[in-house]
């Protein structure tokens, strides 16, 4: 009897030591159900289940890594591939710099503040367009502050100068707004500017839609770059969804009903009732009427049958 029970539970995957301990405690004549319950109570698991649980730990080990720590992540799983879900950013450098300088000084520090704000969010593609003649020394009619910032951003491949030249002493400047809108449109990104680009909207209907839907306005508050939380208005997307390629819809938050189960509004109640999973029920009065109609009608039919003979 001992050997037959030992073979039976070994086929189920339990260890011999655990089986022998249980049989010693319960006796050789113990029922199989009792032995199984005691094995479960002791915390013993079949070897098949343990072997199935082991590969899940191996999936967490990075490829090419010698470590076996379960907390290690794959390279670039969450952090380095931020460009996959964040839109490219194209900044109107002249507009941002003049806004930070109160429309009197071309403040390059404002461009740096805007670039740092998007860097902290994780955006990897950031381009700033500035006319080439801003490389010239500061003058009284066009003062420039912190001009060295433009050189640093150019070395980082963030700042791009739009071409300009001088012909017979006159400066010929290319339209930098066209560069900004064209690059942002091709990259399916976001334009950072307080300009509406109305002349470019009239040129191309596709650009018109793009400028209306992808223009991010901003403000400077005490040297702080602050875009709005609702770029397209109160009923539009949030700032996070506006800057993301895959917007995340917020989960509806329901306020619990203050009356609880005593509420008599039924499906007209605008609050959340945990006891009503589908939230589409009749009012209490209508429920009572629906319940009372059925037995009354049945009772009338039985009376008619009894009276018919």
TrEMBL record:
Quick check: keyword Magnesium in the entry? yes
Say if the entry is tagged with keyword Zinc-finger: yes
Give all residue intervals belonging to the C3H1-type domain. 251-276
Q: Which PROSITE patterns match?
A: ZF_C3H1 (PS50103)
- The domain of life is Eukaryota
- In Gene Ontology terms, what is one molecular function of this protein? hydrolase activity
Zinc finger map (C3H1-type): 251-276
One Pfam family of this chain: UBA_6
Q: Which family does it belong to?
A: Belongs to the ZC3H12 family.
This protein's name:
ZC12D ribonuclease
Q: Which organism was this protein described from? A: Ciccaba nigrolineata
């Amino acid at each position: 009897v001992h050997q037959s029970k030992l073979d039976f539970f070994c086929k189920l995957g339990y260890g011999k030591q655990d089986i022998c301990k249980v049989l010693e405690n319960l006796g050789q004549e113990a029922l199989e159900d009792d032995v199984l319950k005691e094995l479960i109570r002791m915390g013993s698991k079949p070897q098949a289940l343990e072997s199935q649980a082991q590969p899940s730990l191996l999936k967490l080990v990075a490829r090419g890594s010698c470590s076996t720590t379960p907390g290690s992540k794959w390279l670039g799983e969450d952090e380095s591939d931020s460009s996959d879900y964040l839109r490219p950013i194209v900044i109107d450098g002249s507009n941002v710099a003049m806004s930070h300088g109160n429309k009197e000084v071309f403040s390059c520090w404002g461009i740096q503040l805007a670039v740092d704000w998007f860097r902290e969010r994780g955006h990897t593609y950031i381009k700033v367009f500035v006319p080439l003649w801003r490389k010239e020394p500061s003058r009284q009619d066009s003062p420039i502050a912190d001009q060295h910032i433009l050189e640093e951003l150019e070395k980082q491949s963030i700042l791009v100068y739009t071409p300009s030249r001088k012909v017979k002493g006159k400066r010929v400047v290319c339209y930098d707004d066209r560069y900004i809108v064209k690059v942002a449109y091709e990259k399916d990104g976001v334009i950072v500017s307080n300009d509406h680009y109305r002349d470019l909207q009239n040129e191309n209907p596709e650009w018109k839609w793009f400028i209306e839907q992808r223009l991010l306005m901003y403000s400077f508050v005490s040297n702080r770059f602050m875009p709005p939380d609702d770029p397209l208005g109160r009923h539009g997307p949030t700032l996070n969804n506006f800057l993301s390629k895959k917007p995340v819809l917020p989960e509806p938050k329901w306020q619990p009903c203050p009356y609880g189960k005593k509420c008599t509004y039924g499906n007209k109640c605008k609050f959340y009732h945990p006891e009503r999973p589908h939230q589409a029920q009749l009012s209490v009065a209508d429920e009572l009427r629906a319940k009372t109609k059925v037995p009354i009608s049945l009772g009338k039919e039985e009376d008619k049958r009894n009276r018919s003979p």
